[in-house]
Every structure is written in C-alpha cells, then in structure tokens.
Amino acid sequence: MSETRLQMRAGESANVILRDATVLDPVAGIDAPHDVVVRDGRIAELAAPGAASADGLEEIDAAGLHAFPAFFDPHVHLRVPGQEHKEDIETGSRSAAAGGYCGVLAMANTDPPVSTPADVEALLADARASASVRTGFLATVTAGMPGEGLTEMAALRDAGAAGFSDDGLPLRSARVLRRALQYQRLCGGTIALHEEDPELSGAGVMHEGPVSAALGLEGVPSISESTTIARDAAIAGYEGGRIHVQHLSAAESVEAVRAAKAAGVQITCEASPHHLCLTDEAVRSLDPRRHKMNPPLRSEADRQALIAGLLDGTIDCVATDHAPHAAEEKEVPFEQAAMGVTGLETAFAALHTHLVLPGTIELGLLVEKLSAGAEPFGVERPSLAVGSEANIALCDLAAAWTVGEDGYESRSSNSWCAGEQLTGRVQMTLVGGQIAYRLRSFSMGVAA
Ligand SMILES: [Zn+2]
Ligand SMILES: [Zn+2]
C-alpha cells in the first residue's frame, strides 16, 4: 500500500544544545530538565543539566523553557493553488513553524481542487522548494468536488496523497462515502470528513440557540453535525473502513464518536482550539473576522463536552482548521462574510492560556494532543526520545504577548484571538533536524 508523503525545504542540519530545558514528552515518558543535544539533526543525548559538553555545538540557554515534541496539524488550508492572496505554502508553513509545528496536512478545497495525481505531485514539489515544515496534501474524495464520481484514489495514493477529504463541504451522498471506503480497502488513505447536513444547516451563520435568537441570526443546529457523524460512522463500520471526523463542535457529536469507538468503528476525530476556548457568546461581537467559522462556535455545554472528550480520549487530537481569508472577505456584514479563522501561530498559547493555566487540563495532555494528529494519517508522531530526528517546540510558558501586535507569519490576519493577551509562546522550532523558526526577540545567549 502506498504511503503518505510529506515534503519540506532541505537545509542545514542543526548542531545545538538546548541547555537545561525542561523536557516533556508524555508519550516517550520524559518529564525532567535536560541538556538536549542535537547533533546532525538528531537527538543525540539527553544529558543532566549542565553536563553535556559543548564540543563545537551552538549552545542555547533554555533554562526556564520547555522542550516539547513539535506539533502536527492534520487540518490546515494553505490555499494553493488558486487563492495565493490568502496564503501559500511558504507563508502557511512559516506560520506553522512559528506555532511550534513540525508538520501539517493541507486540505484539497482549493481553486481548482486537488483531484489528480499531477496536482498532488506539483504541490509536493512546491513544498520541497518552499515549506518550513513537513507538508502533506489530501486529495478530494469526489472528482470536481463537490461531485458524485470518485477521484482516482489509488493513483492519488501512489502520488503521495495523505488521505482524502472534500472538507469545506460534507459528502452528501452515503453511497459516495460507501464506495470511497471500498476503494480505501485497496489503496489506504484515511477519509477525513467535514460533517454537516446541508438540509439542517440551511442558511445558518452561527450556532442555533439563545444567542442566535437574540441576535436575529439564522442558526446551524448541533444535530446538523452529529446526525451526519452517526450516519458515516455506521457506514465505516459496515465497510470496515477508516474515517477521521474533522472539527468536532457539539456535545452530540462527541457522543456519536464515543459510541462509534465503543462499537469498534475505525474512527478518529479532532477538535479545534477555537471550539475548545470560545462559545457562541463571542458572536455577540458580530465580528466575522474572529468569530465566523464552520462549524460555528457553540454553547458552553458543547465546549465542556469537547474538553471531556479530550480528557477521556474520545477526541484524538487538536487541529487548527487554519483558514486564512483576505480582509475584504471578512470586512462585510456578519451574514455575508467568509467562514474560517487562522490558528497555527496561536494554538499552543491559546490552549495553554484557556485550558492549562486554569487547571482544566494538564500540560502533558495538551502537548500529547497537539502532536497526535499525525497518526490517523499514517505519519509517525514526533518524539524526543534519544535517536529521534529533532522535531522540537521550545516554549516559554511564562511569556505574555498580545496576538497580532507584531503581525503574523500568515498572509492573513483573521485570527480568532487577535488582540487577546495570551501566556506561553513558542521561542524556537526544530523541524526535520533543522532550525525552522526563532522568535525574533528570543536571544540566543550562550549558556554561562
Ligand atoms: Zn470543514
Ligand atoms: Zn477546514
């Protein structure tokens, strides 16, 4: 069976010591201060603080900083081909590196959609020339998305497609999903699903509830998402296929995934930072730049259900659904504005601020969920174990900063937490053994 292919720009292998970093990798069972020795791009040694010999390596004073396995986002929109005024591989992957990510998977709802092996090959070549992090690409499920006929799934997998998704739109037809799962048995490739019943969503622009009623805006009910998940999980179970549910937003959806997992369905799912941190109360701002997305921000009970899903393992990973839009697509009345928000540069800081600092979840769980998104797509999860390729997010948990005050690496500025003060910031990211990002203000002081 073919494998998921990821590409990034080739560069110089790092030779550095992160002196006295607090190393936390819950999966590898590491939680202690170490000198992290990176030689020729690999983690050569985790020495006692101060014990590693400098030996020609660049020394970075990491005392007071945390070293985590770099993060992996299985759901971003890089907007290539066709919408480069919003983002491209270079800017989107730089945004990812600034957020502590070592890898991303880009969605296929571009203009035109990514539907042929040649499309996938061209994007992988582009990533090899310009990506700061390992970048992979999903292809559409339906040819000419949205469509009735399937793409050439086997040929797309051979070209390196990371999986299949019509994200942006749901698969309306149960028959289409069933046939896609039958092909998946032959060629592999997880099918990622944007779950929504267009009949139930109607012309809704926010969550259906007391806030939408008060604002006089048309709502999208939670059952638009959860009923579709239940349908698709049943089909996946029947066909023995593998599905990944994108951007879970509602309590009923968490329950639907929990039930499917209990029934033995091969199902994984993700939740986004904005759904874990905000509720539809935020939509009272009527600011589409920060608060209009699909699925919409839901109620506090929904947010609590997502957190419970993270805690009990129902929700496998955090994914940002980074969705850049140009200013003119957002600076219009709420009903008419484009849906989606950016999130790569702020995911760690926002979740650290909103969930870890108040004691809602532990730091280790956040770190684990931020890198777990690799596995549903057959990509190895980054690790800090000795011998691993260096994929490291070096973070200052005490750093307070205001989102957007120094601009963004992304070409777009529709961050859901623009203007918010967050605590915790990525200082440096190593990706594939190379230094992919350093915060400008992070001094590279040689350890004493
Ligand atoms: Zn979507
Ligand atoms: Zn999306």
Verbal overview:
By secondary structure, this protein is of the alpha/beta class. The chain has a domain at 71-377: Metal-dependent hydrolases (TIM Barrel, Alpha-Beta Barrel), CATH 3.20.20. Helix content is 29%, strand content 22%. It contains 14 helices and 18 strands. It has helices at 89-98, 117-130, 153-158, 174-187, 198-201, 210-215, 223-239, 251-262, 273-277, 288-291, 300-312, 327-330, 347-356, 363-371; strands at 16-25, 30-39, 42-47, 58-61, 66-69, 71-76, 101-106, 134-137, 163-165, 190-193, 206-207, 219-220, 242-245, 266-271, 317-318, 392-402, 421-431, 434-438. The strands form 4 sheets. Strands 1, 2, 3, 4, 5, 16, 17 and 18 form an 8-stranded mixed sheet that branches. Strand 17 and strand 18 form a beta hairpin. Helix 4 crosses helix 7 (223-239) and helix 13 (347-356) packs antiparallel against helix 14. The chain is globular. One zinc ion (ZN) is lined by residues 167-168, 194, 246-247. The site of one zinc ion has 5 residues, from loops.
